[in-house]
Write a structure and sequence with these properties.
CATH class of the largest domain: Alpha Beta
Organism: Actinomadura violacea
Distance between the termini: 59 Å
CATH topology of the largest domain: Rossmann fold
Protein name: NAD(P)-dependent oxidoreductase
Keywords: NAD, Oxidoreductase
Pfam families: NAD_binding_11, NAD_binding_2
Structural class: alpha/beta
Helix content: 55-70%
Strand content: 5-15%
CATH superfamily of the largest domain: NAD(P)-binding Rossmann-like Domain
Number of helices: 12
Number of domains: 2
Largest sheet: 6 strands, parallel
Radius of gyration: 23 Å
Family: Belongs to the HIBADH-related family.
Length: about 300
């Protein structure tokens, strides 16, 4: 591979377009040469105006790329893109996939990355799963987190590109680890969203301003770190009584159980169903690692 990394980007949607725009804007500084493809003409035109080149097909894009980033909607589309890319690698006829590394940014099913990696390896193509976290805003500013699953060799090949796209690049482990990492992260994300909707219903029944509540939540989460503030232990195992974390989380547990009891009582008074709150009251302590008998 020469000093300049030839980057192909497929999928210029809500997050893919600002990711590609970030690459386009950093080409000279990061020694990248960006070419893009999308079925929709408008985002391709925008990226060309920003300094990228356009490819006429996925196959043509793959044939001229060292790193091919794929940010499409679902497993079926990912497989379709990979089929075209691998066909182009086969047509190259050199038996080594022309040095191509495919980066699957789409969030796919847990077993999909290993299946795709096996297909790619038959063509001499490296493949990693590298879902992202941080949304369109993080994509546009280069502040995403990218969670990579794949071999050390493949990770090294894509690192110059990932460093442009992301403020935090995590080599989570072998193929599939990036996807599992993303699913664990999003479990918390969407469970928290569900809890937020429950809090909104409780607040509305209590006659409160929901917009003001949202502003307070965003303000205080920015200060405290939100749910991620408790995620410093390197194990989910049960804690030893008297240990540092047992003592540290003991205060948190007392506050949480008191406030959850009050919130559930208010919900009962107002006739609001709060199953997430009841489950949190039941499961927070053992989830933190307190022995079950401490319940």
């Amino acid at each position: 591979m020469c000093d300049t990394v030839r980057v192909g980007f497929v999928g210029l949607g809500e997050i893919g377009k600002p990711m590609a725009a970030r690459l386009a804007g950093q080409q000279a500084e990061a020694k990248l040469d960006l070419t893009v493809f999308d079925l929709a003409a408008a985002p391709v035109e925008e990226l060309v105006a920003a300094g990228a080149k356009a490819a006429g097909s996925v196959g043509a894009l793959a044939a001229g790329s060292d790193v091919l980033c794929v940010m499409v909607n679902n497993d079926q589309q990912v497989r379709s893109v990979l089929d075209e890319a691998l066909a182009a690698a086969a047509a190259a006829g050199d038996g080594n996939g022309a040095g191509l590394t495919v980066v699957i940014h789409s969030t796919v099913a847990p077993g999909t990355p290993a299946e795709l990696q096996e297909l790619a390896a038959r063509r001499g193509v490296r493949l990693v799963d590298a879902p992202v976290s941080g949304g369109a805003m993080g994509a546009g500013t280069g502040e995403l987190a990218v969670l990579v699953g794949g071999s050390d060799e493949a990770f090294a090949a894509i690192r110059p590109v990932m460093d442009v796209l992301a403020k935090k690049v995590v080599h989570a482990g072998p193929i599939g680890a990036g996807t599992r990492f993303k699913l664990a992260r999003n479990l918390m994300h969407y469970a928290a969203f569900t809890a937020a909707t429950e809090a909104q219903r409780l607040a509305e029944a209590a006659g409160l301003d929901l917009v003001a509540l949202g502003e307070v939540v965003r303000h205080t989460d920015a200060l405290t770190g939100g749910p991620g503030a408790i995620m410093y232990r390197d194990t989910a195992a049960e804690m030893e009584p008297g240990s540092f974390w047992f003592t540290t989380f003991g205060h948190l547990r007392q506050l949480a159980e008191k406030d959850l009891d009050f919130a559930i009582a208010l919900a009962d008074e107002l006739g609001v169903e709060v199953p997430m709150a009841r489950l949190a009251r039941e499961r927070l302590a053992p989830g933190l690692g307190f022995p079950e008998e401490q319940e």
